[in-house]
Amino acid sequence: MLMRFVYPGLFVAAALIVTFVGPASAQSQSLPPALQAAVQSGSADQVSQTIASLSGGDPSVAAALSAQVVGAAEQLVASNPQAAMEVASGAVNAVGSTDVQQSAPDATQTVLVTAARIFVSPAASGASTDAAASLAQQTLAVATQTNQATTIGQISENVVALAERVLPSDPTTAVSLAGVAVDAISPTEVTNAVPPQSSNVVTTASRIIVSPAAQQAAPDQTAQIASQTVAIATSPSVYAASPEAAVQTMANSYAAATSPEVTAVSPESQNQVRDTLVAARSSNTLSSENSANPAQVTAILGDGSTNDLPTTQTTTTTTTTTTTTETTTPAVSADFGTPTVPALNETIAVTNASSS
């Protein structure tokens, strides 16, 4: 089967005619021969250099070629994830300049989002944690340059998802990735623009830092992330996006900040997190979203009356009826899966997640 592809703006003498052979993707088949060779080489440098050469200095063409290349890279994930990450890295590098980003924002976003799907795939991290982490950090760095909150939020979610996946095998890398993801969504203009994505990022990051492995591997960075996540979770826009997730993030962050491993190297972090929680407890804005907020924060801090915060079955009797209600006490999630989040009419008890 023959297909003909014409590339406007490229210095080619004639339309390219490509014969489809075997299971190769349409994305890779539509590339100019020189770029096909670069993709097949599995070299990030060769990919970015070839894109620069073929684009002839036209940033829009460079972006279009990069989008095609990263599409071809995604098709390689199943069969050769290491090469897929290298090729994607070359495409991301090609859209790293301001000229390209401003000339072709849609194509740039396509490159970044596709690269994020590559590095977050189980095949990628299974092949090489280091390569996946490197591509994740590179992609997020370019995303932040675009100043597009939606793109930053999307990429940050994938970065922290990768972090959680590699936590059991490489807690140091997991904490590092969680840190860059939280940094990326920390600016107010990002959190206010994409509250749901920001909520997802800090909730996942808090699950990472509450694990003993993370606290032991990187206590300093765990302390920093704890302070950041609790501040973001208690911001009005992020809290409103999911009060349940915000409360769980607060609980996990406080447990991490008060763990022995963290307080040994950063004793001030627990005070920073506590101060943020005290302010959140008295916030009318947060309480308007979740009337149980003051009681839940008090339970996290552990400085309230147990009479006001029931943790076992309670029975209330009136002159006409007897009503029995059960109040559960969810613990901080430390299983790196879906967080255990209290319902809005429940209290939350916090247990220190550290272990020796």
- What is Rg? 24 Å
Low-pLDDT stretches are: 1-29, 305-356
Residue share in β-strands: under 5%
Overall, the morphology is elongated
Could you spell the SSE succession in H and E letters? EEHHHHHHHHHHHHHHHHHHHHHEE
Mean pLDDT level: 83
Distance between the termini: 63 Å
Helix proportion range? 55-70%
Oligomeric assembly: single chain
The count of β-strands is: 4
Strand order of the largest sheet: 1-2
Main beta sheet strand tally, sense and closure: 2 strands, antiparallel
The total of helices stands at: 21
Summing up helix and strand content along with how strands pair, one would put the structural category as mainly alpha
Can you give a write-up of this model?
The protein is built from 21 helices and 4 strands. The longest helix is centred in the middle third of the chain and has 18 residues, at 129-146. The radius of gyration is 24 Å and the shape is elongated. The protein has helices at 26-29, 33-41, 44-55, 59-75, 81-94, 98-103, 105-119, 122-127, 129-146, 149-166, 171-185, 188-193, 195-209, 212-217, 219-233, 236-241, 243-257, 260-265, 267-281, 284-289, 293-301, and strands spanning 2-5, 16-19, 314-317, 322-325. With 356 residues, the chain is mainly alpha-helical. Helices cover 65% and strands 4% of the residues. The termini are far apart.
